[in-house]
Write a structure and sequence with these properties.
This protein has about 160 residues and is α+β, with helices and mostly antiparallel strands. It is about 20% helix and about 35% strand. The chain has a domain of about 90 residues: Roll (Pnp Oxidase, Chain A). Strands 1, 2, 3, 4, 5, 6, 7, 8 and 9 form a nine-stranded antiparallel sheet that branches. Strand 8 and strand 9 form a beta hairpin. The protein is globular, with a radius of gyration of 16 Å.
């Protein structure tokens, strides 16, 4: 992953360090994904995901609207579910090939993070009823602010 350029907002880079933003992305449980339908209409859905190695990963089934949308327009927006804990990541979604070491590592991360409350079993992508599609979103632009204060934003641009 490339190193982000310094924030442009009213904070200096030391006020909201990128490492804190990555930690907030890592520890989140639910996220929102925004894609664009082939006809240009927006599509927003809650999803589960993994932040690893400077990218956001999510999975879906191959017949979903998300897959059709990303196929037509790969640019997406991912953000945390809370308006008080804001991290917004923009970038292209790219399919992760299965099989690959990257796909296997992400499946293991999903297994470790998402557990069935009744059994404690982790989420296994490889045993889903439909073979899942895993996407990686490398940020092109990210922004954040603290405690719902939109006037105290920081921005990062990635090459």
């Amino acid at each position: 992953m490339s190193t982000p350029t310094p924030p442009l907002g009213s904070f200096s880079p030391a006020d909201i360090p990128w490492s804190e933003v990555e930690e907030r992305l890592r520890r989140a449980f639910d996220y929102w994904l925004v894609t664009v339908r082939p006809d240009g209409r927006p599509h927003a859905v809650p999803i589960w995901g993994i932040w690893a190695d400077g990218a956001f990963y999510f999975y879906t089934e191959p017949q979903t609207q998300k897959v059709r949308n990303v196929g037509a327009q790969p640019e997406v927006v991912v953000h945390l579910e809370s308006a008080n804990d804001v991290v917004i990541v923009e970038g292209p979604a790219q399919e992760v090939p299965d099989p690959s070491a990257e796909w296997t590592a992400i499946e293991q991360a999903f297994y470790a993070k998402y557990k069935d409350p009744a059994t404690g079993a982790g989420l296994r992508l490889s045993t889903a009823p439909y073979p899942p599609v895993v996407f990686r979103v490398r940020p092109r632009h990210a922004r954040t602010w603290l405690h719902g204060n939109a006037y105290a934003q920081s921005h990062w641009h990635f090459s």
